[in-house]
C-alpha cells in the first residue's frame, strides 16, 4: 500500500511538471516552468569588478526568485548598469535619484523613501520588483530587447525613452556574453 501511494505521488508530480510548460524560444519545444525561472549568474561580468559582479548576481537572483526568466534578469542588470554602473550608493544630483535603479525622490519611485533605504541594494531591488510586477508585459517578454523596452518605458520611465532603450539594448549585448545559466 505504501509503495502504491508513493507511486501515485510520483506520477502526480510528473503530470504536474509536464502540464506546466512554456516553449523554448529557439526550438519551440515545451520546457518545464522551473527551467525558465532559473537564475542567470556571472562568474565575472566583463568590464566590471568583483563587487559589481556580486550586485549583478544579487539582481538576477532576486528577479529569478520573483519568477522572472532570463530576458527579464538580463534586462534588469543592463538597466542597473546604465543607471548606476551597479553602484548601490549612486546619486544623480540633477534628478535627485539614488541607488541601483536611480529612484527619483522628487516625483518618481523614490518619493517618500529615505536616501539610506534607496541606497540599500536589497531595498532598491525590492522597490523596482514591486513596480515591475505591475506590468504583465514585462513578465511575458520573450526576448531581452522586448523586456528592456517594457522595463524602460513602463518601470523606470526616463525622459528620453527611445534613446535609453537603444543604449540599454547595447549594454545588454555585452551582459549576455558574460551570463551563464537560465536558458
Description:
The chain has 183 residues and is mainly α. It has 2 domains: 1-36; 37-178, Lysozyme (Orthogonal Bundle). It is 57% helix and 7% strand. The strands form 2 sheets. The chain has a 3-stranded antiparallel beta sheet with strand order 3-4-5, with no helix packed on it. A hairpin with a 6-residue loop joins strand 1 and strand 2 (30-32). Helix 4 crosses helix 8 and helix 8 crosses helix 9 (161-178). The chain is globular, with a radius of gyration of 18 Å.
Q: What fraction of residues sit in β-strands?
A: 5-15%
Category from helices, strands and their pairing: mainly alpha
General form: globular
Describe the largest sheet. 3 strands, antiparallel
Radius of gyration: 18 Å
How many DSSP-defined strands? Answer: 5
The CATH class name of the largest domain reads Mainly Alpha
CATH topology of the largest domain: Lysozyme
Summed over residues and divided by their number, the pLDDT gives a mean of: 84
List SSEs in N-to-C order. Answer: HEEHHHEEEHHHHH
Q: What is the subunit organization of this protein?
A: single chain
Can you tell me the number of structural domains? 2
Q: N- to C-terminal separation? A: 40 Å
pLDDT < 50 runs, ≥5 residues:
1-37
| Total count of helical runs of at least 4 residues | 9
Helix content: 55-70%
CATH architecture of the largest domain: Orthogonal Bundle
For the largest sheet, list the strands in their spatial order. Answer: 3-4-5
Signal peptide: 1-23
Pfam families: Phage_lysozyme2 (PF18013)
Keywords: Signal
Domain Phage tail lysozyme: 55-174
Amino acid at each position: 500500500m505504501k509503495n502504491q501511494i508513493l507511486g501515485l505521488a510520483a506520477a502526480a508530480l510528473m503530470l504536474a511538471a509536464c502540464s506546466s510548460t512554456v516553449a523554448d524560444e529557439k526550438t519551440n519545444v515545451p520546457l518545464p516552468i522551473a527551467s525558465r525561472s532559473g537564475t542567470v549568474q556571472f562568474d565575472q561580468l566583463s568590464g566590471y569588478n568583483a563587487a559589481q559582479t556580486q550586485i549583478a548576481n544579487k539582481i538576477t537572483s532576486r528577479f529569478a526568485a520573483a519568477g522572472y526568466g532570463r530576458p527579464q534578469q538580463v534586462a534588469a542588470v543592463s538597466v542597473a548598469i546604465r543607471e548606476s554602473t551597479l553602484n548601490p550608493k549612486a546619486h544623480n544630483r540633477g534628478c535627485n535619484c539614488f541607488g541601483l535603479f536611480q529612484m527619483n525622490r522628487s516625483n518618481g519611485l523614490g518619493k517618500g523613501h529615505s536616501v539610506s533605504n534607496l541606497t540599500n541594494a536589497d531595498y532598491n531591488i525590492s522597490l523596482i520588483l514591486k513596480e515591475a510586477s505591475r506590468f504583465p508585459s514585462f513578465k511575458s517578454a520573450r526576448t531581452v530587447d522586448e523586456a528592456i523596452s517594457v522595463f524602460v518605458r513602463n518601470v523606470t520611465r526616463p525622459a528620453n525613452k527611445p534613446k535609453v532603450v537603444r543604449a540599454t539594448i547595447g549594454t545588454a549585448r555585452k551582459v549576455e556574453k558574460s551570463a551563464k545559466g537560465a536558458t
